[in-house]
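Feature request, filed as a ticket because there's no other form

It would be nice if the structure record came with a short human-readable summary line next to the tokens. Right now we just get the raw output. Example of a typical job, pasted below so the devs can see what we mean:
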Amino acid sequence: MSQSQFCLQAPGDSLTRKSTFDSVLAGCIPVFFSPHTVYTQYEWFFPAGDVSEYSIYIDENALKTGNGSKRVVSIEEELFKIDREQVERMRSTVINLMPRLAYAHPNATDLGFQDAMDVALEALWAKRLKATHSAFFLKVITIVLLLQFRVKIILIGNS
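Raw output as currently delivered:
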């Protein structure tokens, strides 16, 4: 895998694939056949912008044959179309993704990059802040009011 330029990530029993992470951590450019293998499942860890900067996407339906028809797309032909400079740019982007997919040593401090835990916690925090802003603040206000009410009851009870 570490000697390969491209690593095919065909869907298996499920769309989640451990080899996706293994291949990226080995510096290999992943080739996906379903957008759900990474683009929709792991949006926290893989950039959602221009996915062609770090991966190849070939629609799995273009590879299927039926009723004696020929494939619409050849994986090999698609990969050979990519020039060397583009492969190097993609590999560079893949290398920059590596820290986001691995966990730093527990004793490491101030590494200068975000590891997988940092990325996940930041995404959860952002999601929490983004999701139902008003509902979140309503809960906070309710808790504060309840706490104030309890304090008043305690003070009245002690007087």
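Something like this underneath would help us a lot:
The radius of gyration is 24 Å.
The mean pLDDT is 80.
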